[in-house]
Amino acid sequence: MSLPDREEFHRRLLQVTTMVSVLSEIHDCKDPKDSRFLALAHDSQSGCIISGNEHLMAMNPWRGIEIVAPGAFLALVG
């Protein structure tokens, strides 16, 4: 990807994203490394987590947050 393309991608990404400070410590996942995604979803008040991770998928729904496989998410929004 060329530098101008990367810059354009970055510019567009900034238009549709929000920076979130993750303050919660979540320890609900079987794999401790995956708990950071739960903390991010919790602190950002996400409506869903998009992941194919088996540990996260097994927790669906988690605290009212749907955990959706990427293909299923694309089918929903496509």
CA-based shape = globular
User: SS-based structural class?
Assistant: mainly alpha
Any idea how many domains? 1
Distance between the termini: 25 Å
In terms of DSSP E residues, the strand content is: 5-15%
What is the share of helical residues? 40-55%
Using only C-alpha atoms, the radius of gyration works out to: 15 Å
Catalogue the unreliable spans: none
Task: Explain how this protein is built.
The two termini are 25 Å apart. This protein is mainly alpha-helical. The model has no long low-confidence stretch (mean pLDDT 95). A two-stranded parallel sheet has the order 1-2. The chain has helices at residues 3-15, 35-43, 54-57, 70-77, and strands at 48-50, 66-68. The protein has one domain (3-77).
Annotate the secondary structure layout:
Layout: H1 3-15, H2 35-43, E1 48-50, H3 54-57, E2 66-68, H4 70-77
Parallel strand pairs: 1-2
Characteristics:
single chain, 78 residues, 2 strands
Please provide a brief summary of the model.
The protein has 78 residues and is mainly α. 44% of the residues lie in helices and 8% in strands. The chain has one domain.
